Amino acid sequence: MSKIRIMLVEDIQANREWVRSLNKIAKTEVTLEVIKEAKNGKEAITYLECNAIRPDVVLMDIEFKELGRDIHPNGLDTTKIIFERYPTITTLILSVYDDLAYVRQAFQCGAQGYFLKDGETGIAELCEAIVAVWNRKYFVSPIILKRLIEIVKVAGDGNDRLGLTPKEFECAPLYAEKKTAREIAEKMNIVPRTVESYITSIRSKLNASSPEEVRQRLRENVDRVDRLGLIARQFIVAVLYAQELTCEEIAKKWNIPVRTVEADLSVVRRKLNVSSSQEVKQRLMENRPLPLE
To answer: How many C-beta atoms lie closer than 10 Å to residue 251's C-beta?
Structure first.
């Protein structure tokens, strides 16, 4: 049976104890062993520099605190250092943040996965994530993947307006800044009643109930625009295909037609000049860090 050596970088004792239970109750085809616990990024880097026996996977928190103060380097900076210095080690981010901006930064820094500590995920899900990144597959928690897919579905044909009309898209950031209908009307040279109609449509299309939520959707829209010359939907198809999912499996996961996936995959192969899932994976790895904007 194969063994995965793990280093946990986490400053909260309760979280360390939770992950430590991997050694006792993990039910996987491989043995999971926590060989080192570090309280912050500096301690983790020092361990790697001074020990020949190194982990296969690092479980990395994003923030470290001591006496209420932030400790540097933070988890993302530490991930980048590990990615650049120790290419055989993969990093899985453990985070309470579901903001896609953090997800983007994590992959930019070289993380292989992003696991959300949301109070509902259990040790079995964490085991699955660890094995996935150990096998060099990308992993994101289901709730994060769902949000990414929702963004892509709204994107439609790949333009960057989130399904909004040009006028609605012009109105959205003004509303997100909490400007009144009258202020927006003056800015757009239209009547307030038209602005109110736009706002109703914007909130409906973006599934947002406040200016703050609209601002969040617009911010997430940055995560949707192309990568490696691919629109967002094609990029996510590439990532899933690199994990050796079939077109049928990708289509089922997204609840979209198989022919749409096949068409996107054809574009992926052509633009990346590849012919197999392994070649797609190699191209994605070569182009890391993986900015999603």
So the answer is: 18
